[in-house]
Amino acid sequence: MSQQNLESLDVEAIREEFPILEREFDGQQVVYLDNAATTQTPDPVVDAMSDYYRESNANVHRGIHHLSQEASVAYEEAHDRVADFIGAAGREEIVFTKNTTESENLIAYSWGLNELGPGDEVVLTEMEHHASLVTWQQIAKRTGANVEYIRVDETGRLDMDHARDLIGDDTALVSAVHVSNTLGTVNPVGELTALAHEHGALSFIDGAQAVPNRPVDVSEIDADFYAFSGHKMAGPTGIGVLYGKQSLLEELEPYLYGGGMIRKVTFEDSTWGELPWKFEPGTPPIAEAVGLHAAIDWLEDLGMERVQAHEEELAAYAYDQLAAEGDVEIYGPEGGADRGGLVSFNLEGVHAHDLTSILNDHTVAVRAGDHCTQPLHDKLGVPASTRASFYVYNTREEIDKLIDALDDARALFA
Ligand SMILES: Cc1ncc(COP(=O)(O)O)c(C=O)c1O
């Protein structure tokens, strides 16, 4: 991407909507590069939630009174907004959960526990987040199914020949991360889904690091299920999304039971209500849905292509700056169209936790650890890495601050 694209987002104006970015620690302004963990929330999103609590707060499910009607409409419209944003057919295909992890578990329990059996295969990738990897491992244990992993090659990309070998007639599900939260790799999820379908399997795509950062159209990917979290896309914590094709969701058993999801209950049995409410028992995250709606409006005002261009530019810049240091090992593909907006790395001779702590002394906020991809780190041969991840308010100057701080780490440890 060109510098022109980067400048097409008015980053200065964007930053004004994030008072938190003005915070200082020890007289230094925070440099927030931990966006893959959670993004910051702009004023219009905070305002939308605050207005909701000030003016419309009530429980949903269409109570008779005005406030409940208003809250219900806001909650339902949030589903419509999400559906429109990701190219789903309608609100029936959008289930609100707590986060991506719960969306994964919903399908694992509703579909996996009921449909998998001995001899069935669940095909994951070696770069799956624990949200998917741990969940399917446990479901496989309980059902007798096997879990297989598509190899990650030395460039940090999926070995698609291996994928073609692995995905076969025993495959019941292919579950893949759209953008790796450790390697930054953008995976060919449409191709993986097509492979799954060729063999009569379903596809589940973990879009936690994709939907916040690039245009995503689930109908183009043809994914059967797709998951993401509000708090990684300028929205609030406490809300996640499970997209599912309506025909599949209609067939699935609910994963949680309770009020608000039923059609008829007798002392003997119960039947389920319409989609998506069938999967949303109890009082749902109403204010959070309002916030997610506002976050999508806000992101679409920026333009998702420009958001993507901005992140690709920053990731490429960070990659090049880190690579030029000579003593930094970077994981995942070089900057470009198949890298999302994050870079994980290690500085020679310095543990990722120590480096991250030194960066924190410079108020540069990054993350150290295995980023919930322990098996991938084992494969990389390191216990941990440091991850810098970018969003629409980040600048090249902030990356320069990170690079400058590396000298302190060298002086102390190398
Ligand atoms: C790729 C990926 N999948 C799943 C998750 C889990 O998201 P959440 O913690 O919102 O459930 C994350 C969060 O870091 C992620 O990066």
From TrEMBL:
UniProt record, GO biological process: cysteine metabolic process
Cofactor or coenzyme needed: pyridoxal 5'-phosphate
The entry's keywords: Pyridoxal phosphate, Transferase
A Pfam entry, by short name: Aminotran_5
Enzyme kind, highest EC tier: transferase
EC number: 2.8.1.7
Domain called Aminotransferase class V: residue spans: 31-402
An annotated Gene Ontology molecular function: pyridoxal phosphate binding
Catalytic activity: (sulfur carrier)-H + L-cysteine = (sulfur carrier)-SH + L-alanine
Family membership: Belongs to the class-V pyridoxal-phosphate-dependent aminotransferase family. Csd subfamily.
Protein name, entry field: cysteine desulfurase
Organism: Natrinema hispanicum
Lineage per the UniProt record: Archaea, Methanobacteriati, Methanobacteriota, Stenosarchaea group, Halobacteria
